[in-house]
Amino acid sequence: MAPVRVAAVQLAAGQDVEANLAACLRLIDDAAAQGARLIVLPEFCNHLSYYSDRAQAHSLATRPGDPFLNAVADRARRHGVHVKINVTHAHADGRTGGTNFLFGPDGAVLGQCDKQTLMGAENDHLDPATEVGPVIDTPLGRLGMYACMEGVLNEVARGLALRGAQVLLNSLNSFATDEASLHIPVRAAENKVWVVAANKVGPLLPEEHLPRLSAALGVPPQWLHGAGESQIVAPDGTVVARGPRTGEAVVVADIDPDLADDKRRPDGTDILATRRPELYAPIAQPPRGRRRPAGAATLPVAVVRGDAATVSRETALAAAAGAQLVVVADADPQLLAAALDGTSAHAVARAADGSTVLVSATGTVAVQQPLHGKDADGAGPLVVDLPWGLLALVAGADSIYPEVFRLAALADADVVAVPFTAAESWELSLGLPERAAENRLNLVAAAPLEQDSAVFAMSPDFTLWTSWQGPFTGRISHPVVTVVPAGQPSGRAEVAPAQAANRLVSRNTDLVDGRPWRLLQALTER
């Protein structure tokens, strides 16, 4: 396929529907003038996502064939382009959705779908989707659509990729700065697809209410504006074009959708073909909430790697200094047990056979076999009850599968130990921090000495619905990261097992139980 020029448009939208429409049309014109054949606009382009009640949201929503949607369709037809837009939409059955529309170059609606996971107050005004969104086969490639909170979780993008989408179109209405730094690009990298993401700028709440709402939330008013940084991301997670943090912008890049058909890692592993849907059934089952009380408030941890002598020495030093969990890239379990002698610490390491082993001073406690890869038949992930909380074990290449960490969260894990070797740069920079963020899991990840390792800890500064200990930074769910640089044999940090119990990213929106479990057949069936 010849390269396709795509555009992500960022704009401000308030309570004046006509002004919002004018901004949409003006920026569609701008993107088309720059040669874009596919144009993606933000979420809730017709009206602020702020209503007095559900009835008002329904009355102000778009309707089939109304002036707002007709005007967007006409612009698509005038320029001969594809336009994806998200609006609050009134359905004939009385539901109100956060609805994505894709208009074709003839102005016809090629596909539409409602948002599956709603964020905060959206639950008061909107209805979640009752069916999955389509994968739309077009001359520009196979396109899938989602919106904002759906991209903070992995399941919707994963389902679209499994059903063949090459280019994912994400419309956002977000003030969170970790959308651009983490949630947007990771969906491209983990599925090896293109992502075109358009975010809002300007106030996301009525300007006349900003002072009051700012004071109530304890957040400076400027942080209640759209975070911008609309972007276009390649299948390896590289951001090929990015908009500014503030102000209108049209972000343009040329992409090759066919690149998304190659799902191979450098070792030839196909990241989708090697999935094991039979293990993922709990992800598509009804929420049940946490059944396990929160773990300890703090847990000293360490990362260790190197030759056998270095591992033994550094493990012993870390345990003697108070580390209760030591995660080692590769080690002999017997040597680890000897290094832990006289302490209550546990160590986790990748053994010679590729399994992940949990060891105490008395010997091997548990073994996690790989769940993915050639001849893998492990049934997990294994979650072990330790004095400070629940520990999940991840074996090697299982670290690239988001489903594994979702299963760990559903088993109420507080901390996950990940001895691994990164085959691609995104695995540590995007993949593991996202596994922590989207599940509220503390991760301790140990790679061989020639690679960076890291500890990803849950912060109590989470969402706008909890009191912040430090200044609000705009980062909502990104973990606190302690990097152990390549060449450094060990590193220490603290994680907070108790914070894994707090999964409410916003009022009525749980990161784990808020997954669209009813619509996940693509993840659990071959």
Q: What is the spatial order of strands in the main beta sheet?
A: 5-4-3-2-1-12
Low-pLDDT residue spans: none
How much of the polypeptide forms β-strand, as a percent range? Answer: 25-35%
Number of discrete helical segments: 13
Oligomer: single chain
The mean pLDDT is 96
Q: Based on helices, strands and strand pairing, what is the structural class?
A: alpha/beta
Shape: globular
**Total strands:** 26
Helical amount: 10-25%
Provide the gyration radius in Å. Answer: 23 Å
Give the structure's gist in a few sentences:
This protein is an alpha/beta fold and 526 residues long.
Q: What does this protein structure show overall?
A:
The protein has helices at 17-33, 54-60, 67-79, 122-125, 149-152, 155-162, 178-191, 210-217, 308-320, 333-339, 402-410, 426-439, 521-524; strands at 4-10, 38-40, 82-90, 96-103, 109-114, 135-138, 141-147, 167-171, 194-198, 231-233, 239-242, 249-255, 299-304, 325-330, 346-350, 356-360, 363-368, 383-386, 389-393, 415-419, 442-446, 453-457, 480-484, 490-495, 504-506, 509-510. It is α/β, with parallel strands linked by helices and 526 residues long. The strands form 5 sheets. A 6-stranded mixed beta sheet has the order 5-4-3-2-1-12. A 6-stranded mixed beta sheet has the order 6-7-8-9-10-11. The two termini are 28 Å apart. 55% of the residues are buried. The mean pLDDT is 96.
Task: Produce the secondary structure layout.
Layout: E1 4-10, H1 17-33, E2 38-40, H2 54-60, H3 67-79, E3 82-90, E4 96-103, E5 109-114, H4 122-125, E6 135-138, E7 141-147, H5 149-152, H6 155-162, E8 167-171, H7 178-191, E9 194-198, H8 210-217, E10 231-233, E11 239-242, E12 249-255, E13 299-304, H9 308-320, E14 325-330, H10 333-339, E15 346-350, E16 356-360, E17 363-368, E18 383-386, E19 389-393, H11 402-410, E20 415-419, H12 426-439, E21 442-446, E22 453-457, E23 480-484, E24 490-495, E25 504-506, E26 509-510, H13 521-524
Parallel strand pairs: 1-2, 2-3, 7-8, 8-9, 13-14, 14-15, 19-20, 20-21
Antiparallel strand pairs: 1-12, 3-4, 4-5, 6-7, 9-10, 10-11, 13-24, 15-16, 16-17, 18-19, 21-22, 22-23, 25-26
Helix pairs in contact: 1-3, 7-12, 9-10, 11-12
